[in-house]
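Support reply, case 0932

Customer input (verbatim):
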Amino acid sequence: MRPPPHLAAAPSAVAAHAGPSRRRPRHRGATTTTSAAVDCCRVAALACLLAAGAATALLTFSLPASPISASATTRAGFAGKLSVTDRQPPPPPMTRNLSAPPARATPPPPPPPSPPAVRRRKREPSYWRMAPEEALRYAKREIRDAEPVIDDPDLYAPLFKNVSQFKRSYELMERILKVYIYQDGRRPIFHTPPLSGIYASEGWFMKLLKESRRHAVADPTKAHLFYLPYSSQQLRLTLYVPDSHDLRPLSVYLRNFVRGLANKYPFWNRTRGADHFLVACHDWGPYTATAHRELRKNTIMALCNADSSEGIFTQGKDVSLPETTIRTPKRPLRYVGGLPVSRRSILAFFAGNVHGRVRPELLKHWGNGQDADMRVYGLLPARVSRRMSYIQHMKNSRFCLCPMGFEVNSPRIVEAFYYECVPVIIADNFVLPLSEVLDWSAFAVVVAEKDIPDLKRILEGIPLRRYVAMHGCVKRLQRHFLWHARPIKYDLFHMILHSIWLSRVNQMEIDG
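Our regenerated output:
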């Protein structure tokens, strides 16, 4: 059988290169037979080589791709192609030191500590599918069972009575709360409050709530709260007869307005006004609600004049509203800021109108330059203001005195926060602003009216370390008492709205 042409050509090529033979064969037939045998042997050898190569390739591809599993022959064949790092060094010779004691078995290293279990975030329900009162009951349970706050850069825990519950309540307010604003009521008493002066809080709150896309809702059936958008300041300017000392026309006007709402809409009658609220900052704000029994008893009132002794403000239901002075509505934060403790050379400062029962007593003991450390004046004298203005006095004082006037509230409390001065509050029966959530002992000093003669001793008795901590709290608290043209998280607009929301949530009854 003849080999294939490509195999049979090999001997011919070899013979061609070998050149002519020196010895001639004696017999022609033997030469032919010998040549054929040689060709068959070469073919057989080539076939063996091909078979061996195929077997080697098959073995190589069938084994795992590891340098250790390769055979010694394969390694030798590919030694020239491997890098230095691919070659495994030979193992060291095994020797035994007979004089040395046997080595103890090394215990295995302890397993690494398992990472703390990540608590799965509780899935929030679809609040928009809940009925308003169902959502409020859910919120009350969640606030009661709030998880502890470990670290939150936006909240400074010492400022709050319970920072965990506040944070959870605030989160739920942002997600749940919807407020319906009545469009009824004639201007300017309704819908047009002032944005400047010492009663500007009611104006800024109304303005920002109306502009809120998150909380203001056009469908009253979706609302959790209903807002009576009147201005106590505008009510006084419009209806009060000067020097009459008669506030009844103001309260009668508001009473008739509420009666009109109850006759026109079904919402007041469902809860007898418990899910309604008003915001009034003028001193007469509480007295505008006295002619309507349900309004006074059930409605949530956010009042600057939060006096617990008059029987109008109900602590737990009503909210103490901070009284803020806005000098420039377009730039409400124009003068905010203060000096460090080391540059505050004045112990205590007050200047203002002398009226009410507290301020005359304050000037009697500390006014008229009786003590250089206690800068207490009536209206700031021109000779003094030329050297240092009212705001500069507050920024250079360690303590800013905030005595009540005709009523318990005073805008100097918030001014003290603006200028980073620790407020000293002198007003018995005053429910402090936002006291539902804030711990006032961390950043303010409350002095009883009877202790005015000992005022300097009380203030000097506060250790420097304690004062520095209080000053730091005032600086951190400042952000919660600022008005912004566009509200930001945890600012004064949201703090007031949160206190109103929390008052309504606490009214809910839940099982357990």
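We compared this against your earlier run and they match. Two observations from our side: The chain is about 35% helix and 10% strand. The beta strands are 179-181, 225-227, 276-280, 300-303, 319-320, 346-350, 374-376, 397-403, 422-426, 445-446. Please reopen the case if you see a mismatch on your end.
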